[in-house]
Design goal:
Layout (H helix, E strand, L loop, with lengths): L4 H57 L6 H15 L1 H19 L2 H12 L4 H22 L4 H8 L6 H15 L4 H8 L4 H13 L2 H57 L1
Length: 264
């Protein structure tokens, strides 16, 4: 480590800028899907609560025999309308209870453990945290701090509780004399490629440089995966929305088709 304070400050500013860029890309990738999902929910709710009863009610009054899909949809609509207040308050209480639990240490750990197992999103969280962690660690080490102290500072940037606990355990192992890369590998929370690169950097005496290489690699990986999300989630949501709305519309107009077939 150089111990050069101006260099360390410059490193930190670069790290902060990179971190902000990644966060902005994550927000940008999640805003549109969230808006589209909310719009879909409102459209479906409007159809079920107002449109379905109005259209199917006409056939019920006429004494027409409703198809199975239409009867199921009408019963679902009646339940929503009859117990709307109870459903609304119950959903609010459930959401509040889950939010309260997730704020506890145990709840956060349970959620973080579950989140890491979600396909694609869990991997994205791991590589994102890896990029932040290695970038911060390289910056702190360039300021002349010992490895164990630098790790204690950098672990705070890892939001996932499982990964943070792994870093804490690794710090304890390092303070007992174990190697850096070996201690991290034992916790099984970081990508294998990152661990291999860190092991090579530790053995070669150029850990800071390798940390920056790891950071750049996983920053590019995060950006690539965010691009995949941005390009695929919109059509997937549109297909799901079309399927749900199409089912509702089909269930509403099936009595018309049935009556037309009978008359024919």
């Amino acid at each position: 480590a150089s111990g050069n304070i101006p260099d360390a400050i410059e490193e930190y500013l670069e790290y902060f800028e990179r971190s902000q860029q990644i966060r902005q890309k994550i927000r940008a990738a999640s805003v549109y899907p969230a808006i589209l999902t909310l719009c879909s929910i409102f459209v479906v709710a409007f159809l079920i609560v107002f449109v379905v009863p109005a259209i199917t009610g006409t056939f019920v009054e006429a004494g027409a025999q409703l198809p199975v899909f239409t009867r199921i949809l009408l019963q679902f609509s009646d339940i929503i309308r009859s117990y709307f207040l109870i459903i609304f308050m119950g959903s609010g209480l459930i959401i509040w209870g889950i939010s309260f639990y997730l704020k506890t240490e145990q709840g956060k750990l349970v959620f973080d453990t579950f989140y890491l197992k979600i396909p694609f999103l869990g991997e994205l969280s791991i590589i994102y945290s890896t990029a932040l962690f290695t970038s911060s660690l390289a910056t702190v080490l360039s300021g002349g701090l010992a490895l164990n102290h630098a790790l204690r500072i950098s672990k705070g940037l890892v939001r996932n509780g499982v990964m943070q606990a792994g870093i804490i355990n690794a710090i304890e192992s390092i303070e007992k004399g174990e190697g850096f890369a070996r201690a991290l590998k034992k916790e099984d929370v970081f990508p294998d490629m990152a661990l291999r690169m860190l092991a090579a950097g530790e053995e070669g005496g150029n850990l800071e440089k390798v940390l920056r290489d790891v950071t750049r690699f996983y920053q590019k990986e995060v950006e690539a995966r965010l691009s995949v999300i941005a390009s695929t989630i919109e059509p997937v949501l549109m297909v799901l929305m079309g399927f749900v709305i199409g089912f509702i519309m089909l269930a509403m107009y099936m009595p018309i088709f049935q009556m037309a077939g009978t008359m024919g």
